[in-house]
Amino acid sequence: MRTSAGEPQVTIGRAVDRSATALPPSGGLPAYDELPDAVLVITADETLLAVNTAAAGLLGVDRREAIGRRLGDVADLQDERGRSWWACTGGVRELPRVTRAPERTLLLVAGGRERSVTATARYVRSPTGTLLHTVLCLRDASARERSERDQADLVSTVAHELRSPLTSVKGFTATLLAKWDRFDDQQKQHMLATVNGDADRVTRLLSELLDVSRIDAGRLELHRQVVDVASAVQRIVDGRIAAGDEPTRFAVLRGEEPPEMWVDADKLDQVLGNLLENAVRHGGGTVTVTVGRRGDGAEVVVDDEGDGIPEDGRTRVFRRFWRGPGGRRGGTGLGLYIVKGLVDAHGGTVTVGSSPAGGARFDVWLPAGTPDFAR
């Protein structure tokens, strides 16, 4: 359709607002240019009638040059089988009563790049059902795909980590129930200790999953109390030694006394425990923990003497499922993600760098805080 001035205009549905829908010479969409989604208006013969700003950016084209060209010449939209979206929807566009296309994921090939997009379409028709043009909306689906991959990785990780301890628990309990009289007390004690340890592994995994869920949902609750950070560090180190680590593996250094610290004691133990676990599992040599004061808060620095973390990989260490340099496996890969979430909840910071011995250094700073009832 054309206005009295001879300019093309977009018909949305069957109503035409002659004062607001006329397209400027550039082919932009006044009503759509503020939208974050890419919007294309395509005639029945696949000619681009209009392109909004987001669409020009997504396609990597100058929209003034794109107007009047065929969609297929500007961008290639393919379904999961590699077929042209425009060609595959031709039959639907010919149905006079169909006005909408459901959302689907497509592969967009444009500007020398390939990316996944979600696409929805509206078929604007005349009163007799003749197709006037198609309004196509595109949205970059890379964030959604990353989220879906994360969820799939989480399910895979949980299944893998649960399988081993549960298999052990099932095996030992079945053996004890079937052959109790054949084992002496020492053998029974060993099997029960193994079952107890594997049950602890399952409990830790479930606790980590709950923490991840609360961090993602922003539902972490802190119960602050006065905590001696240096004593907490020593307690965590002593616990690892009691669990079998060599005493020579750890060194605890104390600097200036921190101010009175109001933090969640359990969450602090989780932070310290995960950092030490990471240093022991992925590092090497002596793990040195330094506790001191920095500004109006406490600083805990954990150094190891391992291979360290390359600079280009340090931005990834606090993501889910990070498992150390070289892709070494072990644990769920959620420990440092939880560390960052817990430190952030306290209003603190955690950074990663290089230790003086060349290994990894994790530096945690927590503000002194205030008691919950005073907040």
Structure description:
It is a single chain. With 375 residues, this protein is of the alpha+beta class. It folds into three domains: 38-140, PAS domain (Beta-Lactamase); 145-217, Signal transduction histidine kinase, dimerisation/phosphotransfer (DHp) domain (Helix Hairpins); 224-374, Histidine kinase-like ATPase, C-terminal domain (Heat Shock Protein 90, 2-Layer Sandwich), CATH 3.30.565.10. It contains ten helices and 13 strands. It has helices at 53-59, 63-66, 71-74, 85-88, 90-93, 142-179, 185-217, 229-242, 265-282, 335-345, and strands spanning 38-43, 48-51, 76-78, 100-110, 113-125, 131-140, 224-227, 250-254, 261-264, 287-293, 297-303, 349-354, 360-367. A six-stranded antiparallel sheet has the order 2-1-6-5-4-3. The protein has a five-stranded mixed sheet with strand order 8-10-11-13-12. A hairpin with a 4-residue loop joins strand 1 (38-43) and strand 2 (48-51). Helix 7 (185-217) crosses helix 10, helix 8 crosses helix 9 and helix 9 runs antiparallel to helix 10. The longest helix has 38 residues, at 142-179.
